[in-house]
User: Fold this.
Amino acid sequence: MSSDFYKSSILPFAGIIIKLCRAYTNSQQDFEDYYQEVCLQIWRSKDNFREESQWSTWVYRISLNVCLTLLKKKKNNVQHFVSDSIATEATENNYAFSNESLNLLYDAIRKLSEIDRAVIMLYLEEKSQKEIAEIIGTNPNNIGVRVKRIKIRLKKILDGKIN
Amino acid sequence: MEKSIENIWKEGFLESDALVVPKINDLYNQKSIHLIDKFKRMFKINLIAIVAFSFAFLVISFFVGIPIMGIIFFVTLSVLVYINKKLLNDLEKIDLGESSYKYLKVFNQWIKKQVTINKKISRFLYPIIFISLILGFWFKDAEGMPMGERLVGEILVGFPDTNLIFGIPLIGIIIALVIIGLLALFGGRIYKWDLYIVYGSVFKKLEELMTDIESLRS
Assistant:
C-alpha cells in the first residue's frame, strides 16, 4: 500500500476505524490487528468505490464488514470467529482510554450482539436512521426502535457505574 | 445527574489520547486474518496439493503397475480441482463495500453453494476412488496374469462351489457394491462433517448475524 493513499484516504478517517475496531475487540493486540486488517481491506477494495456514497460512509461499511467477519487468534491458536464469547472474556481493553466513563461505555457496548454494536456505534456517530439502514442494509423504520432498546440495555448495564 | 451515553461518547473522544492511531508497518506484506482471505488461501493450497498429488500419483502408478488407478485418480481429481477453481473465482467477486446485509448474504450464499456442490461431488468421489483401487489392483500384473484373475483362481481351488458372474465371485461383487453404496450414501455427510469441524463456529455465527439483520429488515 502506498503511504500516500494511507495518508490521504485512510488516516483522515482513522477515528471511525478506531472507534469501530475497539467495539469488536477486547485486547490491544487484537485492536491493532483489526485496525491493520481494515486498512488493508480498504486499500484492496478501493477500486470498487463507485462514488454512490460518501467516502466516509464507504469506510464505515468496509470497517464494519471486516469487523463482523474477522478471525481472531485464540490463546490456544485455534482460529475462530471474532465475537465468540467476547463479552465473557477478560477485557484487557477496559482501560484503552483515559476517560473512565468511555471505558465503561465501551465495556457495555461489547456486551451487545454484533449488529446492535454496529447500530449504536453509528447512532453515536450521529448518523441518521437512513444512513444507518443503508450501511447495515436494513429497514430505516426499525432503526429508531432498535436504538431505543439498545440505549435501555446500555443504561441497565451502566446503572450506578457512571455518575 | 447521570450523563447520557451520547455525552459520554462526545466527551470521551474530546480527550487527546482517545484516538491514537496504531502504527502500521509493512501492511500489505502481512498475512491477512480476514475470513474470506483465509478461505481463499486454504482453497488455493488445497487445489495445488490435489493437482501435485494426482500428477505424482499418475507417474508413480505407471512405475508400480497400477496405471488404471493412477489415470482414474488423475481424471477425477482434475474435475474436482476445475470445479473448485470456478468456485474460488466467485469468492473474488464478493464486495466488502456493500451493505452488511448484502455482504453477509452473498458470502453466506457462496458458502452454501460451495458446501452443496462439494457434497454432491463427494457422493461420487469416494465411490470412484474405491472403484479405482479395486480396478488398479485387479489388473496389476502378478507373475504374468492380472492379480484379480490369480486371486479368483486361488479362491476356486479352496472353494470350488463359488458362484461367479463374468468370472468374478458373486460374494465379492456384493461386498464391493455394498461399500460403493455406503460411500455414495455417506460421502456428502463425511465431507460436511469434516468441513464443520473446522468452520462450524463460523457458519453458526454467520447464520446468527443474518437472522439478526433480517429481524431488523422485517
